[in-house]
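discrete fold record:
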Amino acid sequence: MKLDVTVAAPTDGHTEMCTALSWVSSNELFTCSDDKQLLRWTQEGELGGKMADTEGFITSISWFPDVGKRSANMFACACTDGTWRIWTLQGQNAREEKKIPAHTGAVISVKWNWDGSALISAGEDGELKVWSRSGNLRSSLCSAGTAVYCFVWGPDNDTVLYTAGKTLNMKSHQGTGRKALSWNAHDGIIMCCDWNRINDLIVSGGEDCIYKVWDAYGRQLFQSQPNASVITSISWCPNGECFAVGAFNSLRLCDKTGWSYSREQPQSGSIMEIAWTSDGTQLAGAGGNGSVVFAQLVQRKLEWENFEVTLIEPKLINVQDASIDQYERLEFPRERVVEMALGWGHLVVATATQCFIYGVNNWNTPHIFDLRATPSLISLADGYFLTMDPTHGVIIYNYEGRQVSNPRFNNLQPEFLNRHTVALSKDVVAILDRTDSKTVRCFDVATGKALSTNVTHKTEIVQIALNQSDVPLSERRLALIDRNRDLYLTPVVPQPGIFRGVYKLQTQVDSMAWNDSSDMLAAIADGRMICWYYPNVVFVDRDLLPSTTIEKDGSEFGKVPQVSTFYGSRLTVRKADGALVTTSVSCYASMLYRYIGESRWEESVRLCRFVKDDKLWGCLAVMSIQNRKLETAEIALAALTEVDKLEFILHIKNIPSEEGRNAELALYRRCPDEAEGILLQARPPLTYRAIKMNIRLFRWGRALELAVKSRSHVDTVLGYRQKYLDQFGKKETDKRFLQYAESVEIDWEAIQAKKQQEKDDERARSGNLSSSGK
């Protein structure tokens, strides 16, 4: 990815230093400079005309945020005479409505908060003041004691980050946000800073010629090498994936982790301010020599299987099929490309007003439909894709361009969401609730209706992902990373039995990704690459988790690596310096998934015998137990020398009824409620087996309840209960057992006879079912 830069020379517009600029929702750019002119520019970098002559020298512009579907027509500007002013648009001109005295000395910067309910001004006198929309002073936020060159509103719309000499400072303007925080950030005066509302990261630059990346708690994540000149401006792309850094004749594009995509050298002097368009595809810079720098994001690349898609120009995409060395050029003459995504046999491209859906086997006739708003995200899954925009939220489409659903909930706040906080599979869409970052809301893709329960966690969640394999909803899994960098796995639909919450897989996780076609899950954690061949093992038999997990040394990935893709057996990792490193896992795991998906169990056993890998045997054992294939489970557990588990499987095989075997397998998975339900729903119900199962689990109360309800085997429950108490030298204290003990006689010969009769009846019933099946 790089910037395609054009420069509007001073002869084309301003004749003095350009000091401030701002994009508006109509994708027009407003600029002002020391020549006291307010100019309007088109998106293509052409001068649209002069809006007004200003009375004073303007140092900053802040456009009033759009509210709902209505575009704002008001903006505020800061002036060197100590005032800030309110302007409104009147057709093709701008008019000053109000002048508000604010500071002693120049007002350096003004900014509206996210909803336009308050404005803060910062001045050379070191004061930060909070104003109402109409220009009335509400409060003085702080007195820094030195000039405040930059400040920014935090994602919570309350906390303010501001510079003061060499320090960065946070403070809540209403007293309801996070605690005040201050830290030494640079060795020189800090000139600029920005705080992204999606990824919650902070960037700063200063006179020490260095830019840095911080988290919201003041911990340094990245520090650049010294630049040739002072860092004069810095700004996040709205989607939080990258940021731009401005200096003398220098414009640098950087990834959110800090490494540089590209560095351009426009002849603009010092770039005093940088502003991005709302869709994040273009930026503008205010040049110190009066020029205006326009730059568009190009060379964005996507890869899937043997296809590579590259945005080589704002309106031109190049597609390469490496398998046959074929190239296609996709042109979009009307509008520039805003967002695109590749996968699942399709390329989805969005411009400002239209969406194009291409099949990888046919690049000539895409499905085209009109968008209701410009999307900020496109995510693909098997059969469906989603778009997200700040106005309409999340919208699900199929690959024919038909809208399928529009999942919604109160306080959705799509402007805070990105690809790490929205996940899509063929049947579920999961969205992180940004008002409560401990909750993930799940919806049915086809209807947009919320599922019965949400996924909740005890700590704030920072990343979510859904497995992409073709499994039923009951086996859909959500992986999440929380604020402590712990990786958890949880079912989307709660499962019956003991386990209902989230299961911790790993700690100190940098990033993770599901495989595109199977349930393999990979993560980079604590300097290691870890791959769980079958993470669903934690819901079947977590004792076998080590037998289905591989680890590799990850020192080659460096610090803070990010998993980019996990296709087939190949894993692509992005290092902290931006380099891509490829590693792989066993290709036999994917083959095993394919065989089992096709119910080719004999081939699965032959594959494991050929490979002779305990990890593969472990996967086969768990998968066969999950699919109730006892013969295969017996072979796999024997290969693993899991004697105790093997004995239990052999015990299950000797149970005559299918319901009895299924119930024991459910019990093996630590799901006693599910096991009991299987037995009681059999026709006729296997009541004695359900009672005996509860006795084995020492669930005495439930066993007695079933016996009383069925009016049989009450003496059996009382007899085993008495044996249990005698073994430990205890006396009965439960009132229910004491009540029935008075009226029921315990005769062990009768109990044994009834037990044998129940077994004979079950065996005869199973024989009759087998005969009728034949």
